[in-house]
Amino acid sequence: MRLWVILGPTAVGKSEVAVEVAGLVDGEVVVADSMQVYKGLDIGTAKLGERQKVAGNGRYIPHHLVDVTTPDRPFSVAEYQRLARRAITDILARGRTPILAGGSALYLRAMIDPDYTFPPLAADPALRHRLRRRAEEQGSAALHRELASVDPESAARLHPNDLRRVIRALEIYHLTGRPASRWRPAAGHSLPYAPSLIGLILPRSLLYERIDRRTKEMLGRGWVEEVKGLLEAGYSPALPALQGLGYRHIVAYLRGECTHEEMVRLIQRDTRRFAKRQLTWFRRDRRIRWFDVSRYPNARILAAEIVAEIGRTTGAGVEYITEMSAKPPLEGKPGE
Question: CA-to-CA distance for 137 and 132, rounded, in angstroms?
Fold first, then answer.
């Protein structure tokens, strides 16, 4: 049983390519995005609309693990893993192909690495309180530096502002004496599916241009109004959901802590930095087959090449290649 995995940095075009691949292999998409799980966070997380879930060959592609919780409810990687595995099992049982697509490295790792499990320990409220007090007094960067000294792998994938997960990683270390990134399952643990990893990439200058352009497009579609509505609904700006990339910058703007121009600049800058961290993380995995999005005129043709490549190396999806190759080339820029 094969799991197709489409990953890459933010704004590279994963969602659209995943839809087109799913259309070719009779698939359904399981989203691996730590922000798209939250209801109400739509524009800033680049959720697809219903029309965008229709592949070029007319197939409607169901999406799973989107809008599964509210911004004020804690949501862990362990919970994501449980729900995503259930979705994948259901997709396979119906004879369809699961396609895991996203850029959240921790969520992806929880699904594709058989050695990724979670320590069997309950939360320690007293320890968490002490760590949170330290963050309030010394700043979240202080906790992140401590994490880097005891668990550099976890620190590399967590932003210093992701205080909840930084505290959890430190909690695991202090309670077990082992870094969170070093937990292993019992002997003989294996995945119930074989993942094929497909990485999407763009030349850095093109990726950064796309990030800057997409930021302005999101703001033009009402991103600020979306955040304002969440705050007016009573959601605290301190919630992890509203500390996500872009959302915390807009909260600062709404509080009068920066100008609109400065807000835009900071979102673009921090998104570029995030993309760089994602690439650093993904490039460590030699299982990934990389595809340069700029070499293909549109997502449909790129999807056909991906299906052909996986078919050549694994025998998966070959029956759909002929159908796609018979279609005339489509015009358009990559990702459009």
Answer: 9
Percent of the chain whose pLDDT exceeds 70: 88
Selected residue with higher pLDDT from 199 and 75 = 199
Query: SS3 letters for the chain?
Result: CEEEEEECCCCCCHHHHHHHHHHHHCEEEEEECCCCCECCCCCCCCCCCCHHHECCCCCECCEECCCCECCCCCCCHHHHHHHHHHHHHHHHHCCCEEEEEECCHHHHHHHHCCCCCCCCCCCCHHHHHHHHHHHHHHCHHHHHHHHHHHCHHHHHHCCCCCHHHHHHHHHHHHHHCCCHHHCCCCCCCCCCCEEEEEEEECCHHHHHHHHHHHHHHHHHCCHHHHHHHHHHCCCCCCCHHHHCCCHHHHHHHHCCCCCHHHHHHHHHHHHHHHHHHHHHHHCCCCCCEEEEHHHCCCHHHHHHHHHHHHHHHHCCCHHHHHHHHCCCCCCCCCCC
Most confident of 160-169, 236-245, 288-297: 288-297
By the 10 Å C-beta count (0-12 exposed, 13-18 middle, 19+ buried), 49 is classed as exposed
> What's the rounded mean pLDDT across residues 104-127?
76
Question: Can you tell me which residue has the tokens 């699961």?
Answer: 98
Per the CB < 8 A criterion, the answer to whether 127 and 175 are in contact is yes
What are the backbone angles phi and psi of residue 123, rounded to the nearest 5°? -65, 150
> Using only C-alpha atoms, what is the Rg of the chain?
20
What would the two tokens of residue 332 be? 């358009």
Please, are residues 152 and 281 in contact by the beta-carbon 8 Å criterion?
A: no
| Bridge partners of residue 291, in order along the sequence | 200
- Please tell me the predicted confidence (pLDDT) of residue 124: 72
Proportion of the chain above pLDDT 90, given as a percent: 64
Indicate the SS3 state at residue 139.
coil
Specify the pLDDT at position 117.
Answer: 63
Task: Give CA separation, 179 vs 205, 211, 246, in Å.
Answer: 36, 33, 29
pLDDT at 323: 39
| CA atoms 51, 211, 283, 117: torsion sign | negative
